[in-house]
Design goal:
mainly alpha, about 110 residues, Arc Repressor Mutant, subunit A
């Protein structure tokens, strides 16, 4: 095995314009990968359930998560807080049209 090739693999994650981290080239979020991994799914099962994912990319993302658990958990906590704020706004009956427009804008990203 030649370890002097100098090849470095990049983590296949990218952040969209809304600040959501996704597996590069897909709509699958880091949140999703972590959630199903923590629920006990193996990389092969995750890739099978999400056909846009390559098994190697799932392994890379899971490895990243395991090596940066605190950072990823902080990101996930922030995402949960944002989701809770949106839910509270919707339930409070605030400007539904404005909320709808913001949600549609996020989907368009």
């Amino acid at each position: 095995m030649n370890t002097e090739t100098g090849s470095v693999e990049t983590i296949p994650l990218e952040t969209d314009s809304s600040g959501v981290i996704r597996v590069a080239g897909t709509r699958v979020t880091l949140d999703t990968i972590v959630e199903v991994y923590e629920a006990g799914s193996r990389a092969e099962e995750i890739a099978q359930h999400y056909p846009s994912l390559e098994v190697a990319d799932v392994y890379a993302v899971v490895t990243y998560y395991l090596r940066h658990r605190d950072e990823v958990q902080g990101y996930l906590a922030k995402r949960r807080k944002q989701a809770e704020e949106i839910r509270r706004e919707a339930e409070a009956g605030h400007d539904h049209e404005s909320l709808r427009e913001r949600l549609l804008a996020r989907l368009a990203d």
